Amino acid sequence: MNIVDFRSDTVTCPDGGMRKAIFEASVGDSGYGDDPSINELESLAADIVGQEAAIFVPSGVMGNITALGSHCRRGEAVLVGDKSHIYRYEGGGLSAIAGLLPYALDDSSGLPSPESVLNSCPEVNVHFAQTSLLCLEVTHNDRGGLAQPLSDFKAVVEAGREKGLAIHLDGARVFNSAVAWGVDVKEYTSSVDSVQFCLSKGLGAPMGAMLCGSEEFISRARFERKRLGGELRQAGFMAAAGIYALKNNIPKLLEDHENGQVLADTLAQGGLIVEPVPQGTRRTNMVYVNLAEKGPSSSELAASCKPKGVLFNDMEPRRFRLVTHLGMDREEVIRGANCILREALTA
Ligand SMILES: Cc1ncc(COP(=O)(O)O)c(C=O)c1O
């Protein structure tokens, strides 16, 4: 059976060109700085995002935790969105590993408001943890994968600066936002102190993420990554996949977005409640659907679609997420949408 896998853009597998690049990669011991492919990937990534330096990390989560540990001292406070990946979906590593106190700001719109940032840092006083970092997420996974307007992003960055905070961008899918708005990714990434972006989501590499920032920040990050066990040896095989992804797959994200729109339209026309794209934001490769009180729950619907070859994640009892990605074509998207409609509306 030909599976339509809407669970995530992490399910992509390397195509022939990427496999060839992996097979032919020049490698060395990257712990000694001897892996030419890792070195090439790190300088390419830094260049693309407009930062001085970059470091390859095995996963997006490790990129984020490495950033937190490199920016902050234990016992400090960090401003995070209350629906953000760093706060909700990283196993509490922010506290358990980095030793930080989260102040969670409402980011229902995809970004915390500048006012909430300005009002959330207690004065410097022995009673309070010192707030040192603001974390942002673009695109925002839990908030519909929406591409937030650049002006909103810049306004919240500005507010963080006004409070003297360092700024980390969880840009796991920042290229989706750049492509959705047709802007250079540097518009998001060059004004922050660090950015993590994933190679293994819509860009199609089998593993890895890049953490980028100043030379000084990245040398601290090398220390943090070592502590976490994330310094790899002949990682050039994976770096070759990352280089291939950055050189070939960024423009292809647009196809995922177009497929996301077709999926949303098909489901909405068929009678499901598709979460809308608020004025001023743009859809990328995610579609969130809310289920009416009557009828199957998200998990029941996921379970009834699975034997028919359509997979997706039930995020909440009456809310589920569908993700379009590399390697999924229009015919599959429509077939998947029709299956969900049939199962949801005839149950
Ligand atoms: C916004 C965001 N940040 C970070 C991550 C973590 O990436 P990884 O699963 O590669 O560790 C994810 C994963 O889905 C994500 O959606």
UniProtKB/TrEMBL annotation:
<dbReference type="InterPro" id="IPR015421">
    <property type="entry name" value="PyrdxlP-dep_Trfase_major"/>
</dbReference>
<protein>
    <submittedName>
        <fullName>L-threonine aldolase</fullName>
    </submittedName>
</protein>
<dbReference type="Pfam" id="PF01212">
    <property type="entry name" value="Beta_elim_lyase"/>
</dbReference>
<dbReference type="GO" id="GO:0006545">
    <property type="term" value="P:glycine biosynthetic process"/>
</dbReference>
<dbReference type="GO" id="GO:0008732">
    <property type="term" value="F:L-allo-threonine aldolase activity"/>
</dbReference>
<dbReference type="GO" id="GO:0006567">
    <property type="term" value="P:L-threonine catabolic process"/>
</dbReference>
<comment type="similarity">
    <text>Belongs to the threonine aldolase family.</text>
</comment>
<dbReference type="InterPro" id="IPR015422">
    <property type="entry name" value="PyrdxlP-dep_Trfase_small"/>
</dbReference>
<dbReference type="InterPro" id="IPR015424">
    <property type="entry name" value="PyrdxlP-dep_Trfase"/>
</dbReference>
<dbReference type="InterPro" id="IPR001597">
    <property type="entry name" value="ArAA_b-elim_lyase/Thr_aldolase"/>
</dbReference>
<feature type="modified residue" description="N6-(pyridoxal phosphate)lysine">
    <location>
        <position position="201"/>
    </location>
</feature>
<keyword id="KW-0456">Lyase</keyword>
<keyword id="KW-0663">Pyridoxal phosphate</keyword>
<dbReference type="GO" id="GO:0005829">
    <property type="term" value="C:cytosol"/>
</dbReference>
<feature type="domain" description="Aromatic amino acid beta-eliminating lyase/threonine aldolase">
    <location>
        <begin position="5"/>
        <end position="289"/>
    </location>
</feature>
<dbReference type="InterPro" id="IPR023603">
    <property type="entry name" value="Low_specificity_L-TA-like"/>
</dbReference>
